[in-house]
Design a protein that fits this description.
CATH superfamily of the largest domain: EAL domain
Number of helices: 26
GO molecular function, one term: cyclic-guanylate-specific phosphodiesterase activity
Pfam families: EAL, GGDEF
Organism: Paraburkholderia sediminicola
Protein name: Diguanylate cyclase/phosphodiesterase
Radius of gyration: 34 Å
CATH class of the largest domain: Alpha Beta
Largest sheet: 8 strands, mixed, barrel
CATH topology of the largest domain: TIM Barrel
Helix content: 40-55%
Length: about 625
């Protein structure tokens, strides 16, 4: 006889599980980063082990189907409180509740407080978490509920912030004591600049509102170090411990070592790609905008003449219809024609479109810098003589621009962008480099500032052209990136063939020597076969004398900056200057490597500066 397949009735009802006390609690620690102590535990519910209702998702899905979700939440809270009381741990207990369950909790707060006190858990040790599944239809009526809980001694937390119903609106109106950042934003934050920026925005608001942040979903040391160095005070995740019925009462040695790690994080904001680092056209359009009046389509040539006479610096005037540009009249072209005999008498009262360019170059304010650069390189060069019309994002007339202003604006914006991210290698530029040096010095983190330069790069660039020269620079960037630990070592591109690495890796010297070796071997493939056989190229030195130049090689001058247990004695500019000094020395070494000490070198530079500042009799 075949055994009968289990029916739907084989799954116990939630009310039966509650009545038979078959629910159990597990706890996950929440860590205070400042001292490495356990701030508290989040209580989580589990169904009977080995059954289809073991997980919280299955339990609450079944409870919703049976219409007893609130009863399950209350039973889960009682189970967690009872189990936590038996553990006899210090710290707070975080309990998850939906909005409906919190309302019931407040209504029966006397019973709730009695349960807590009966089990030996002081209400001041309870943190009520509003879960992400909750929808609060009337936030105003929910405010007294939060006040009631706080009066009883409990704290209020907003859970899984950044997803579902955990919104900025609730944060502002409910003013939680604790905000738990959803794991989506924390997992992988060490390598994701957008997640980093999102969490930094949350941090700014937390500082303003007085809420304590808890980063959920910390699973590895790299993410922990980034979150720690951002200034977020608490965290939770598998790195500190998985949910367990009998969790540890203290953090593991690995977690404690990570929290005390002397190196600081390399924030992902400094390693963005060019597309994310490039500014939009808003900055460029603002730089080149000429705010000028426009004329309606029905205006006459006399109206144009009157406007140009009234505004002698105006290079052109736009013709608009319903605030949208339809033509452009260039001042010089118009005046040249109008100065001809009898033209004013013949054409003065005729429509202005007679002497207008009916297809002007139009640039939207939102046009990117790259799109503007393509316009500069296009075959259509009318903008050089006529200028162009600038519109808003809805196609409405905003102002005018000239070819000269377009070239200047694009150039200035690109130069400014290169200070943040090099457009060739996509590596951080001078501003992020200085910022990271300041962070290292401010945190008293010992490091090695290594200035990288390429020997004989200029003659190679002159011989083979900038295109091939750019390929060598990109190869150098790739070699340097390959030897860096992205979580500890900062790589920036100063400009041209100059790079800077701020090493915190303990094996920094091996990494430096490996970079020199890999580059010196690989760079030879950029030469023609005959030049490879000759060992280099013939060219001219800076004075125009015929000279033979060997292969392009890498030189790295390094500066040791010690951690001295107190405020830094140096500035970012001094470290950069000393690193440049080390680089110049390395260029004269056969090995291409030099190490100098910051103390001695900074003192030397300061002495030279003092001598230069002395008055001359």
């Amino acid at each position: 006889m075949q055994p009968r397949s289990p029916s739907r009735s084989a799954t116990p009802r939630i009310e039966e599980l509650i009545a038979r006390r078959e629910l159990s609690a597990v706890f996950q620690p929440i860590i205070n980063f400042d001292d490495g102590a356990i701030l508290g535990y989040e209580g989580l519910i589990r169904g009977p082990a080995g059954t289809s209702l073991e997980t919280p998702f299955a339990l609450f899905s079944q409870a919703l189907a049976e219409g007893c979700a609130l009863e399950l939440e209350q039973a889960a809270a009682r189970t967690c409180i009872n189990a936590f009381a038996k553990l006899d741990f210090d710290g707070k207990l975080f309990l998850n509740f939906s909005a409906g369950a919190i309302l019931q909790l407040a209504d029966a707060h006397d019973d709730t407080l009695a349960l807590l006190r009966h089990r030996g858990v002081d209400p001041q040790r309870i943190v009520i978490e509003l879960t992400e599944q909750s929808t609060i239809l009337d936030v105003a009526s929910f405010l007294p509920v939060i006040s009631t809980l706080r009066t009883a001694g409990a704290q209020f937390a907003l859970d899984d912030y950044g997803t579902a119903n955990a919104s900025m609106n609730l944060w502002v109106r409910l003013q939680p004591d604790v905000v738990k950042i959803d794991r989506f934003f924390i997992h992988g934050i060490a390598s994701d600049s957008l997640k980093f920026e999102a969490v930094r925005a949350m941090q700014h608001f937390a500082n303003a509102s007085g809420a304590r942040l808890v980063a959920e979903g910390i699973e590895d040391e790299a993410d922990l170090i980034v979150v720690r160095d951002m200034g977020i005070g608490c965290g939770q995740g598998f790195f500190f411990g998985r949910p367990h019925a009998e969790p540890a009462s203290s953090v593991t040695d690995d977690a404690r070592d990570a929290l005390r790690a002397g190196h600081i994080a390399v924030f992902p904001e400094t390693t963005r790609t060019a597309s994310s680092a490039s500014p939009s056209g808003g900055m460029a359009s603002a730089k080149m905008m000429v705010h000028a009046p426009a004329l309606p389509r029905q205006a006459t040539n006399n109206d144009v003449l009157e406007l140009f006479n009234r505004l002698p610096d105006l290079h052109a005037v736009a013709v608009v219809e319903n605030d949208e540009p339809v033509a452009l009249i260039n001042r010089r072209s118009f005046m040249d024609r109008y100065a001809l005999p009898y033209h004013r008498e013949l054409f003065g009262k005729r429509p202005c479109l007679q002497f207008a360019n009916a297809s002007p170059v139009i640039i939207e304010q939102s046009m990117t810098v790259e799109q503007m650069a393509k316009l500069l390189a296009s075959d259509d060069q009318r903008y050089l003589a006529d200028g162009f019309v600038i519109t808003d994002n809805h196609g409405k007339y905003a102002g005018l621009g000239t070819g000269e202003k377009l070239v200047r604006a694009v150039t200035e914006v690109r130069i400014e962008a290169a200070r943040y991210a090099n457009p060739l290698t996509f590596l951080p530029g001078n501003i992020p480099i200085s910022s990271h040096i300041a962070r290292l010095l401010g945190n008293d983190a010992g490091f090695y500032a290594c200035y990288v330069d390429l020997n004989h790069f200029k003659p190679f660039n002159d011989q083979y052209g900038y295109w091939q020269g750019d390929e060598v620079l990109k190869f150098a960037a790739a070699v340097l990136a390959d030897v860096c630990d992205p979580t500890r070592d900062f790589l920036g591109h100063v400009g041209g063939d100059d790079f800077l690495i701020l090493f915190q890796s303990e094996d920094w010297k091996e990494r430096v020597l490996r970079a020199i070796h890999l580059f010196n071997e690989g760079a030879q493939r950029f030469y023609a076969p005959t030049d490879r056989l000759a060992g280099g190229i013939h060219g001219e030195d800076r004075r125009g004398n015929p000279t033979f130049f060997g292969f392009v090689t890498m030189a790295i001058g390094c500066v040791r900056v010690e951690s001295d247990g107190g405020p830094s004695l140096y500035s970012s500019e001094e470290i950069a200057s000393v690193a440049a000094l080390a680089k110049r020395r390395a260029k004269h070494e056969t090995s291409g490597f030099v190490l100098i000490d910051a103390d001695e070198s900074v003192a030397l530079l300061r002495g030279q500066a003092d001598m230069a500042a002395m008055p001359v009799d």
